[in-house]
Structures are given as C-alpha cells and as structure tokens.
Amino acid sequence: MNPITAGILGSVLLVFLLFLGMPIAFVMMFVGFLGISYLTSIHAALPVVAKTVYETASHYPYTIIPLFILMGGFASSAGITRELYETFDKWFRRMPGGLGIATIAACAFFAALSGSSVAASAAMGTIAIPEMRRFNYAPKFAVGVVAAGGTLSFLIPPSLGFVVYGMLTEQSIGKLLISGILPGILLSVAFIIIIVVQVKLNPQLAPATPGDISFKEKILAFSGIWETILVFFIVMGGIYLGFINPTEAGAIGATALFVIVLLKKRLTLKNLTVSLLEATRISVLVLFLVAGANVFSYFLALSTIPMAVSNWMAGLQVSRYLILSIIVLIYLFMGCFLDAISMMVLTMPVIFPVIKTLGFDPIWFGVICVIMMEAGLITPPVGLNIYTLAGVVKDIPMQTIFRGAIPFLIPMIMVVILITLFPQIALFLPGMMGR
Amino acid sequence: MKVKQWIQRINYYACVIGMIFLLPLMLLTTGDVLGRKFLSKTIPGTFELSEYILAVFILLGAAYTQQVKGHVGVDFLTFRLNPRLRIICQILTTLLSLFIIWILIWYGYLEGIRERTVSDMLRIPQYPFRLLVAIGGFLLWLELLIDLFNLIGKLRRKGIP
Question: Quick check: ipTM above 0.85?
Fold first, then answer.
C-alpha cells in the first residue's frame, strides 16, 4: 500500500468513527496513531500522542484561549450585557425592528469583549428575548436575531476563531484579530439591514415600540458603553500599536474586566466558579482538538496527501475563485453537521496548503473561514448557538429558532462575497500594523 | 456506585485546583506588562511560569471536561439509530478512546521520568509537569471507564429486544 492509499484509508476511517460519535479529538489521535505506526514504525508512533499533548498544553501563545473566554465571563458577571442592551434600546427604539437592531448592536459590542459566541447568545438570550416578546415581536424573529447576533463574537476580536486558525496555520494571531475588526463592523451593519428589510416586508414581525426617549436620555445612556469601549481600545489598541502581544492583551483585558466586576461589587463565588469552569471546559476542548489535529496532520504529511491535493488543484485549468467558491460551499455544508472549531481543525491540514498554492492571502482567508464558521453556528441540524438558545428559552421549539436564524445567512454570504471582491476590507488594518 | 462518585469528585477537584491558577496567570502577565511599561522592570520567568500554569490547567481539566461531555463528537447520526445499536456504537467508540488515552498515559509516564530539562530563568524542572500528562490522562481514562460501565449497564437494562 503506498502512502497516499494509506492516507485515504485513514481519512475514511476518521469519517466513519466521527459519525459513530467518538469525540473528535480522540478520533484524530487514534487514527493519527494508527497511520503513523503504519507509515513509520510502532516505536516512532507510540510517543507521538503524549509528546503532542504536552507540547500543545504548554505552548505559551495558547494561554490566550482561557484568557479570552474569561473576558467574556467577567463581562457577563459585571452586568455589561444588560447595560449595552439598555443603551442601544434607547438609541434605536424608533427604527423599524428597533429592539432587534439594539440586540445586534449590543451583541457586536459584547463581541468586542468576549471570545466565545456561546457566552454572547446565552447572555443576550436571557435579556433581549423577554424584552422583544414583551413588545409582541414574533418569537421566530426575536430568537433568530439573538442567534445571529451571538455569532459576531467569532469575528469581532477578541475571537477564538482567529486564535484557532492562527494556531493551525502558523499565522500571526495579532494580525488575524485586527483583520476581523472591519469585516465585523460590516457584518453587524449587514445584519441590521436584513432586520430592517424583514420588518419592512412584514411589519407583523416587529410592532413599533411605544414611548419616546429624550435627547438628554440618549446622551446619558452613553454611560452604559464606555467600559466596553475603553477595554476594547486598551486590548486591541495595544496589539495594533505593537505594545503588547495578543496573549498579554488577553491577560490585561481579563484583569481589567475583573477589576470592573470588583468595583461594581458583583463578584460572587458562584460567578467566579462559573466563569472559571467555562474557561476550563472550552480551553481543554480546543487544546485537545488542536493536539489531535497535530497528531493527525503528522500522519497526513507522511501520507503526502496535502501536497498531492494542492498540486492537483494548482494543475487544474480553472479560475482560483471557482475553487474558493467550492471550499466555501463545503464549509457551509460541513457547518450543518460539525461545530465550528472541529470543522476548522479537521479541514485545515488539507485546505490551507491549497489556499497557499492558489496564491490567496492567508490572513484574508482566515476572515473568510471565520465567517463560514459563524454560519455553521446557526445552520440546522447542528448549530451550537441554536442549542444554547433552546436551553435559555424553553418554550420556543428548536425548528422555530433555526427558521428565524436562516435569513441571517444572506448577509454572511454577502459579506464573504464583498471581502473577496475587496480584500482590503480585511487587509487594510493589519497592513498598517506596527509589526 | 460509591467508587464512581468518588472518582467524579476527585476529577472535579482536580479541575478546580487547575482552574484557580488562571487568576495568577492573568495577574502575572498583567503585572509583567505594567512593570515593563511603567517601571522598566519585568517579572522574571513570566513566560515559563505561564507555560507551566497552562499545562497544569489543561491537563487537570481534561477529566472534568469529559465528565460534562465537553469533548465534542458528532451525534446526530447515532441518535437516529435504535437505542440498542446506539449504545453498542458508543461502547465501541469508548473502548477506542480508552485505548488511545492508555497510550497517552503510558508514554506520558515514560517521557516524564526521563525528562531532565529545567526552565531557562527560574531553573524549575520540567518533569513534574510532563508527568501531569500521565496523571491527567489517567483521570480522563477513569472518567471514560465510568462512561463504559454506564453504557454496559444501560445495555443490560434494555435486555434482549
């Protein structure tokens, strides 16, 4: 059996075990181990898993992951989510679908503090959905808005999506995070546009909210967002100007939010335990996935499949944008079944060499990838944000949440197309960075 | 059933010990940056301490993450199978997981006791942290073993269809 055949058989076994429900990290380690044993020797393969796990778990840049998740946890404990929502409610109340717009804006600002989309959906779900239902918004519409808004945390830095992409492809995490800012703003605006369009087409979805807000109140409402803006500028500004590396930025952001929680006297043992346990669970999940991916990539590299695939792709006489479209479609499809991080971890060893061979910018592709992962969070039958929301609002069936979220795929695809046509949207800010 | 609860409690406390280190990690790095910017002094060994803390935190948290089913898998297909077949699939995948984690423990231990490296600044030996791969792996293995016994129990209760 030549290496390529072994690689293909290994990949088939991987997919088979995946569908049997084996945890993805363990599948990749297991198949990687078998493959390495076959292509080299059992003695070479035995230490690989233990070595990789230790090296992944003690790699300094990865400390950023728990820190980014802690930022979101502390921001929730500080009650920042509610303050953001109340501010934007005052500002956007008069617009069509105003509470929906306020939700998207609050999600976008919360995303500027949090690396995990689940935290955003859960926090916003408990605040925004009761409010929208109180004003007779259609339940489908209300949950759809929150599900979509929650995904913004994946694109707007700090973002776990970029960190994982950077880890897998060895790109600068700082540049990736900065590259998410403009597309994140663009996507938030696109979400707001789709809300206005939906409400204009069907005013039943969101009846106008009664009550006028004076200009003075609107100005005073600013007090609800200054903390967010301050922390965001310290963290991202520090990275942008090259004063601090992303890991340090994560630590400073988490410390700053921790101080805010203390100042507001919101620190309880329960809050702290919840934030820390959440940070542990997600960090362990991500780092075991990455360790698994590293073992599996080692096997794939031995099998020479990534090289063969990129050579074959490069030899095809078709436009590279056709191949890109196919990759985006594959991600859209896979996102229906896999969670975002697993999807990236499973595909990157093969997809990334192809992207490089085709001459696309790796930072730019990171943005495209992260937007596609966001789409995966809300597509049926498996969508993490939808599951989270279904846990928060128990009286709305899952199908309704999926149906409410589907219209928001349109702005995501539009933004992917826009960024492909004008890569500067993603590359302008990182291009001007200090380092 | 007593043993099972004991293991789960130990795994929970192992995770708690690991996660508490996150606070010093956060403060240490912040202190290092503030010192560097304002006092032109750094905290020696921040980098290597961060690495060790991350290792403690991740390796001790691995078993608890399995306890709350945090290691994600794809279950939408097996959910459509009949319950008995589903349990059989789960038993098979749990056995394979037990196998690969066993190799992790075995070589984690061998690599750990052979390790002689110390860290650059503070000269902290690396082997205790390397050995955590075996310890954390073993806790994770026990957690998987509990899953296996639960599944076998379920299969028995379902009886022969």
Answer: yes
